[in-house]
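protien #1 (seq + structre)
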Amino acid sequence: MEMNQSQRLPVPQQVAWEALNDTELLKQCIPGCESIEPDGDHAYLLAMTAAVGPVKARFKGRMALEDIQAPDSYTIRFDGQGGAAGFGKGSARVRLEPDGDETVLTYTVNAQVGGKIAQIGSRLVDAAARKMADTFFARFTEAVTPDATDSTPAAEGAPAAAAGDNEPTEQAKRKRSWTAWISKS
């Protein structure tokens, strides 16, 4: 399977680069991701649940960042096992290019699948991969997009928080995050 796509991010290149290297942010944005743990220099162990057609499985795998050209590009090599469901392995070349105050992220993925997942057929596998990529980028773009409402609570009719009292803001953030997560699932 090969997949190419570009995504415009409403942030400068350095901000996009830092977000792409923030494992907590990535964990929130990757559909079905349960954990991302360090495993050496520029390497991580992942656990996630994924569904391809009628096959749903928990995958455990490893990804390593190679050819790192900060803040412009890197290659991600990945390998995951899903038990009886099969396996997935491959690489993704990720490139960031500044465009004014924004950044254009371009990626090319080359992947192979085997086991029950491969028996489903390339159309369903490709469709599931595109859906996961679309969901990831919708979540990622929302996560990196500056929220103008956080800096101007009085503009929304909310009273300004007293010095040191930021609980209403945190509560509003949690509510917005939960609502966004539900609407994207």
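ok now protien #2
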Amino acid sequence: MPLDPQLEAMFANQPEWPPIRNIPVPVLRESVRSSSIQLPPPQVSLASVSDRTIPGPNGEIPVRIYTPEGKGPFPVTAYFHGGGFVVGDLDTQDMIARGLAAGAETIVVSVDYRLAPEHKFPAAFEDCWAATQWAAANAAELGGDPALIAVAGDSAGGVLASACALLARDAGAPRIAAQINWYGPGIHPIPEEGSALEFANGPVLRLEDAHYFWELHIKDESDYDDFRASPMKAESHKGLAPAFIAAAECDPIRDAVEAYGPVLEKAGVEVEVKRYPGMVHGFVSWLGFLPGAQEAMADACAFARKQFAAARQTA
């Protein structure tokens, strides 16, 4: 299927994004930030949005807490933004956190984890895991239910969410009710086949960009074998939380995203994998105006609500 007509029209009026390897990291971060904060937010109402810091393994971690309208206690979801582990912050994917909080009727703790190349693997994961533990331990204080914890993320954040779900299972706590992953690949490095070749030149994300982000993120190639970098490489996937995985059709890493689904299914994990026609990597960030993004958010929220309801019944 061709690129979504609305996206095609949008890209036609913009200069082509240059290969990120040629852009200094500070410039790249500011460019992504400035373009992201101009995007319209979803038209949702929330009870409150507040910023604070929480304890982390290497100092305080900034977080933003979104509380839905209605009567709690609510489920609590730790959310991790995308950006290749190199760019992104609490503002760049604020729209996704808002949509998730309202649509899934969950408190969302959005995490401003440490970024590469200043902080190499596994720094980002360590911050996200600390935030997941904090969200569970402090759920009641936030107006949440400590028995209803979820993890969610987009792109790099989806990898982090998948990894946190694995470690939560291994650690025995917190019990994760659902994991949501918008276009975060299950394996690294990205296999150079299928969608990686078909969409090697984008739009939006090039295969070379994905490789470069990981060059900045990892210390050496042995990190690729760590489940915190490649969730598919975990020794076992049995007993994991139900998973929602969203893939963009016109995305070089699409196949690496979707590949995690059959692995989970084979291990007996409830999983829903959905490919969104005509969409590109990062499309959920256009939640404020793009129907495909709105569909992907609605699907993820419906999945989360279903899992929260099931968890309440078994609690």
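The chain is about 35% helix and 20% strand.
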